[in-house]
Each structure stands twice: as structure tokens, then as C-alpha cells.
Amino acid sequence: MNPDVVLAIPALVESGALPPAAAPRLLRVARGELVSVHAELRALLYAGVLLLTAGVGLLVRQNLDRIGPVAVAAALGLAAAAALAWVARVAPPFSWQEVASPNLAFDYILLLGILLVAADLAYCEVQLGLPASQRQWHLLIVAGLAGLAAFRFDSRVAFSLALGTFAAWRGVALADAATSRAWDTAGAWRWNAIACGILFAGLGLGLAHWRRKAHFEPVAVHLGCLLALGGIAVGMEDPAWGAALLLAGAALAGVAYRTRRFPLFAYGVVAAYAGLTRLLAEISHDAALGCLWFGASSAAVIAGLLAAHRRMKEPA
Amino acid sequence: MTPELGRADRAAAVRAAARSWRRAGIVDDAALAAVESAFPDDRVRAGPVFRVLLFLFTIVAASGLLGFLAVGLGSHAGALATLAAVAGVALLALTEVQVGALRRRQGGTEAATSLLGIGLLLAAAAWFLLDARSLGAAAAVPALCLLAAALAGAAAWRWGYPLYAALATAAAFVALAHLPAGRAAWIALPLAAAPALLRLSESPRLPPAHRSSAMAVLLVALGGLYLAVHAGSWEVRLVERIGGRDPGPMPQMLPASAASAASLAPLAPGHGGLPWWSAMAATALVPVLLLAGGLRRRRLPLLLAGIVAAVVSLATFQQYLRLGPAWLVLTAAGALWIAAVLGSWRWLDSGPAGERHGFTAAPLLTDARRQAALEAGVTVLTLQPAAPAAATERPFEGGGGRSGGAGATGEF
Question: For residue range B147-189, what is the model confidence (pLDDT) as tens digits?
């Protein structure tokens, strides 16, 4: 409901700015007589998928002995097959370009199918007695499956799941290695995070460059930048990593400034500021000077941001 | 709120609507330009990313400078409180200058100075009441809450921040909880104010920010009402605890079959008794009323509040009534939930022109790009299949629903 828009529409029609044919429907929307629940239904579907998969997880854990392995695996497989069969039935033909989702539920039924397959696969791995050291590969398989589904069915949600699961695979693999070999994995985690970040960002840029699912680029590049910057930031106990964060953040902010990528610009500015602050912390540990630094440097950053905003012109 | 600011907000609402029409392909670029020329913007605004950055760095800058001054003052609490009071007033004045003379709106900096100003004044008041006047918490906390409600309410009214309206209402509720009839006030006031607040949230006489503020107040008040009647809140005497009264130790949350009425303190309705069942009925009734009100008035905030309350109520019933094993409740609820959403979508979609009773499942004027980015981000943050654990280490946990981000089970 928007009374100001209700008042404005007749005037806009009269002035010719708004086509008269569109006015009645827009007036209904502005008066609150027609309300779209599209976004809300999608959010509720997502919540339903979370509930159902959480319940399935508990079902398998708590009723393993009572139900029996075959019944559990078969039930999960059937449920996953039903979800994926529905997706396959309604999915439009494959295209490297963006394909409109056939309906509101498509993405989340696909997500449900992938998660049920993942649960079934994990369950079978346990039943088959796969050694613990081998189970990290489960995440890589699921990441690959989600990635394939993302490309085939043009789903950003599945693509996000694929990237997140791939990063988790690296984390779990390193955790397993640390357990078995009792080595300090902090450095390895940092480098893996940075490598994952560069890989994701490179994948995103490659997709955009070759115009193959170019609309997936923001997901990959954002996650990649966050992972890489986060990986560098984790090592900031060492001032050299503070310098690395300053350089990486400044480079990202510079590129984002030229390409008008506002969120990436924000990541870069915050990272560069954190890196610079870390370096200055090496010079002085005086509390008053520290406060003065935060006050003066932030004021300078504000001035810089206001100047950058005038040039970048981010829509309000 | 000044008339100029109100007019600027109204024009901004029309421009935002025109941009959504452009995204939906209803108007072309020329029409959008015509609307923007007919409803010009006389404010200095920043986009959402710059707004967040400017907000954060303003907070850091002001905090750093205040910290520098505080270090100079040493550890004299009175001097620090005076500094906080002076800085608070100065920051509120700076907010007024930014919103007034500098014509800033949605710029980040004015929101940061207003927030810090209110926070510093409250900190100074806390020192004055607790330290200088040596008041106990029982007397000082309600006074501080009333001051917070007054400051945040004034800021919401003057500068049009719905968040402050919500905070002011929450602070007022905490103050009310200190009254002997606090719980009754939490029930009666929202019921009495809801119709007026709902009307205000739709009133063309109010500028958009004040309409949103009225809705924010209504939602917080309804949240207070729900807390006051909720069965769990009765049992743990939540309102009385918030009000600083000591109702004794926290009772165990037990299912009806296992709890004895005699073990509960006098304020709490005993399990299985009429008051307890009344509380359970009220726990069920509030979500139903919210959903009915949202559907009848076609107000999405009420509908969403009703859905959230319904989920909390179902979890409450599971806690007290043991509707079934957790896996069954979750799986059945998830399956029913998905079925209900799909059913609603089909039902709306099959209506005349894809709508029924004023609701449609079509995106209409939704910003599809922003929604897609949001959904992808939420998926990365909340979902990933768990790696199976070795059977000898711990039982298998199926996938889905893990939180913690991309490296939740790893260390990223």
C-alpha cells in the first residue's frame, strides 16, 4: 500500500508519463488491492526444504536400527527421485544463456532433490563402511552434482550450494589431514581459502567472458572475493599478511571502482582499511594514538567515499 | 519531521515505484525520466552499499575521536559521563544539521550520528542514575528505558527512522514490565492500540517514514502481546523477569505428562489446569488472528508476523504436548509446509488473471535481480550437506539445514 503513489498515478497518466492502459493495475497495487506474494512463497518454500531435510537427517540418525538400511536408503532415494523427476519434467531445454524459471517452486524442489540425494549418498557411504578418511570425497561429489544441476537447470541457488560445498570439502579434507598427521593446518587452511577464492572468482570471470551462464558470475565472484580476503585476513597476526590484505583490498576496490561493482568496492575498502590498520598497529601500541588513528583515518575514508560516490553514482 | 523532508520522502516513494515499473517493463526509460523530473529529488542520498560503508566509518570515526578524548580525561567516571552527554547532544545536533541544512537522506552518516548520539546520552544517563545518584537497578532501569523510549521515539518522529520507532516501543515495553500489572499492560495496550496503528500505517496524511514507523510499532507491540500470552513465557515468568522481579528459579520445561502443577511457582499456570490450557489456547490464537488480519487487510508484514508466530507456536506445542518424535514432526511439518506453499501457489495461479482475493503469486513489481542475489547469498550462508562421519566416531547425520557458511564443517 502506497498512498503517495495512488495520488501520483492519475497525474502521471494526465501528463503522458504513464500509459493509461497500465494505470488501473498499478493503482490496484498501490492501493494494496493487489498484493504479490511471490517472494514470500519462495522464502516459505526454502524454509520448508530446510525443515524437511533437517527432519530426514534426524529420521536417519534416530531410526537406523528400527527401520533398516535398505528401507532408509530406498525411501530417501525415492523421495529424491520424485523431486528430481518433477524438475526434469518441467525444466526448459538447456541453454548456455539465462533461462526463465518455469515456475515459482522450481529452484527449491531442485534444491530439495539435491539435498535428499546427498543425504542418501552419505547414508549409503556409512552403511558400506567407507573409511572415515575417504568420506571427505562425499562433499566433492555433492558439489559436482549440485554444479551439474545448476548448469543444466539454470539455478543460481544450486550453483551457490555447489560452491559452498566445494569450499567445505577443502575445509573437511584439511581437518581430516590434521587429525591423522597432527600438523598445524592454519597455513594450509589460509592458502586453501585463498586458492578457493581465486578459483571461484576466476570461474565467475570465465563464465562471463565466454558468455556461458554469465549470470552466475556475481555468485562466484562475490563468494570468491570473500573467501580470498577472509583467508588473507585470518593470517593477520603476521604483519606481512596485513600488507597482503591492504594490497588485495586496494586492488579489488580499484577494479570495482572502475567497473562500478558496488559490493566488491565495499569489500575492497574494508579489507584495505583493516590491512592498513594492522600495519600501523606494528608501529605504536599507544591507546590514545590508536583512537586518534581510528578517528582521523575513518574521517579520511568518509571523505574518500563521498568523493567516490559522486563519481560512481550508485542508485539510492 | 519537517514538511520538506516529508515531501522529499513522498517524492522518493513515487520515484521508487516508477523504477519498479521500469524493471517490470510497464514503462520505458523516457517515462521513468518524466516521473523523475515530475518528482525531483532535493536530497543528498547514497546507494545501499555506500550507505552501509558511510554508516560504519562514521561510527568508527566518532568512536575513535571520543576514545581519544576519553583517554585524555583519564578514569574519572563523572568527566567521562559529561563527555558522553556533551558528545551525545552534539551528535544529535549534527544529525539535525545533516537532515536539515545539508539535506542528507539515506546517506548513512546521519543515521550513524543519530544512533551514537542516542547511545551516548543513554550512557551518560546510566552513569547519572546508577553512579551519581546511587539508584538501584530496580529504579534506574525503568527510568533508562523510558528515556530510551523518549529519545528513540523523538528521533523516529523527527527524522523518520522506523527502526527507532521499533526500539522505542521495545524500550517502553521493558519499562511497563516493571509495573505490578506489567503482563496485563503487555496484553491490553497492543490490543487497544492495534486498530489505530494499522490505520496510521495506511494513512495518506502521514509521510512514508511515519507510516512505516506505525507498522514497526505495531509489529513490536504484537510481539509483546504474543510474549505475554505465550505458554512458555507464563511458565518461566518471562515478563516478570524482564521487569526485574525475581519469581524464583527457572522451572524445567517439561511435557504435560511429566510436570506436576505443584512444582510450579504461583505466577505460572499449572500444567493441565484451566489457566495452562488458556495460555496454550492463546499461544495458538495469536498467530491465527495475525494471519487473519494480514489476509483481510492484505498487509504482508502482518502475514509474515503471523507465519513466524505460527512456527513458534508449533514448536511450543511440540515442546509441551509432544506431538510426536522430533524427526516425524520436522519431516511432516516440512512436507506439509512445502505442500501448503505449492497448493497456495497453484490456487492463486489458477484464479482469474492469476489472482484471488487480491493476492497473486506472480512477481508483479519484484526486483528479480536483487531477489536472485539474496537467495543465492542465503543458500551459501545457511545450507550445505554435511560430510558423513565414521560410524565408530558418532552416528550418521543426514544432510541439510546446517548453518555456518561455506566452511561450516571445515575451518574457512
Answer: 999 999 999 999 999 999 999 999 999 999 999 999 999 999 9
What's the gap between Cα A26 and its chain centre? 33
Mean pLDDT of B373-398: 61
User: Which residue from A minimizes the CA distance to B30?
Assistant: A17
Work out the pLDDT band at A44, boundaries 50, 70, 90.
very high
- All three cell numbers of B308, joined, read 513466524
For B355-369, the pLDDT digits (tens) are: 999 999 988 887 777
DSSP B128: I
Cβ under 8 Å to A: B residues 48-67: 48-50, 52-54, 56-58, 60-67
Beta-carbon separation of A19 and B27 below 8 A: yes
Residues B362-382 have a mean pLDDT of 79
Q: How far is A83 from chain B (nearest CA, A)?
A: 12
Q: Give helix B109-127 / helix B48-73 axis angle, nearest 10°.
A: 30
Mean pLDDT of chain A: 90
Grid cell listed for A307: 568523493
Distance from C-alpha of B320 to C-alpha of B313, rounded to nearest angstrom? 10
pLDDT band (50, 70, 90) for residue A237: confident
Whole-complex ipTM: 0.89
Which residues of B, range 312-351, sit inside 8 Å of A by Cβ?
325-335, 337-338, 341-342, 344-345, 348
Residue of B nearest to A145 (CA): B385
Please tell me if residue A57 touches chain B, with a CB cutoff of 8 Å: yes
Helices (H) and strands (E) in chain A, counts: 13, 1
Strands (E), B344-400: 355-356, 359-360
Planar angle of CA B253, B257, B260, nearest 5 degrees: 70
Taking the CA of residue A132 as centre, how many other CA atoms within 13 Å lie in the half-sphere pointing to its CB? 14
